[in-house]
Design goal:
The protein is built from eleven helices and two strands, in the order H-H-H-H-H-H-H-H-H-H-H-E-E.
């Protein structure tokens, strides 16, 4: 019984927290790079304030989650080493993790839904559906955290397939819908890009990576419900959301000077009836022949 608990509950739990700290450290480094670039700006517009607020909120929760992970590892591996029952029960830090993951996911979804709003010419249908999925995912994630907190056992998370399934499926569907919406719009405006560059841009700017991890989290939970192996994906998901947001922002800033056609960002609202591309060649601004448009 003890070996089974170590293999199915305690082992995956400790490894999940280690992965969480690893990805959280990467997110902190990327956030530092982002704020270092923004610190050099002499003027900040509304988009900069919005993006800075998103990164700050996500970073705050990521650091808090990393602190709770370190606390849990210390309690489980150091103070209660060999106590399988305590390891399977977890601590308060373990019980609040679903709420942290759901909140970080909601903040990241707000960022990408805003990009969808701009990319789809302010489509209320698409963005309204995405907001609805966001609220379902956030609410069910908090409900899971409340249940685990009252049960005071992370191992009992397998006994609530309905709220867990609602949370994981809503989160995965939201990520997939956002990625598809942004990919479709991005492909419309990068027809002349190279294949590899297009793939990299799509991966960084559309939140495709969190969608894959969210689907993986859903599949592992229902395939191995008697274990905590799904936490390997679930506890890493907040940091992956943060990395996805930061990669989209940093990649947009890096690629921006070389590509001024309709891009994913604030310039999406500037679409005009005549599609005009402005190219920068050797730092010289070259206007296209407007008579040929």
């Amino acid at each position: 019984m003890e070996n089974s608990s170590i293999t199915n509950i305690l082992g995956p739990l400790v490894l999940s927290f280690c992965l969480q700290c690893f990805f959280a450290g990467m997110a902190v480094i990327q956030a530092t790079c982002y704020y270092a670039r923004k610190a050099r700006l002499t003027h900040r517009d509304t988009a900069d304030i919005f993006n800075g607020g998103i990164v700050g909120a996500v970073l705050l929760l990521i650091v808090f989650g990393m602190a709770t992970a370190i606390h849990t590892i210390h309690q489980t591996v150091t103070l209660h080493f060999g106590d399988v029952a305590y390891g399977g029960q977890g601590t308060w830090a373990t019980w609040v993790e679903p709420a942290i993951t759901a909140t970080v996911g909601a903040i990241a979804h707000v960022f990408f839904i805003h990009r969808c709003w701009l990319a789809t010419n302010k489509s209320r249908t698409i963005c309204g559906l995405l907001v609805l999925l966001l609220l379902v995912s956030l609410g069910s994630g908090i409900a899971v955290s409340v249940f685990v907190f009252h049960a005071k056992s992370i191992g009992r998370i397998s006994t609530i397939p309905v709220p867990m399934g609602l949370w994981l499926s809503a989160s995965a569907v939201t990520d997939i819908a956002i990625a598809i919406s942004l990919i479709v719009e991005h492909l419309k405006n990068t027809r002349n890009s190279g294949l590899m560059r297009k793939i990299i841009e799509l991966t960084l700017q559309t939140g495709a990576v969190p969608a894959v991890v969210a689907v993986l989290n859903f599949v592992i939970y229902f395939a191995m419900r008697s274990t905590t192996y799904h936490l390997l994906a679930e506890l890493s998901l907040p940091s992956i959301y943060a990395l996805s947001v930061l990669a989209a922002l940093l990649n947009h800033e890096t690629a921006g000077p070389r590509r001024s056609s309709v891009a994913l960002g604030a310039t999406m609202t500037d679409r005009v009836e005549k599609k005009v591309e402005i190219k920068v060649e050797r730092n010289v601004l070259v206007w296209p022949n407007l008579h040929s448009v």
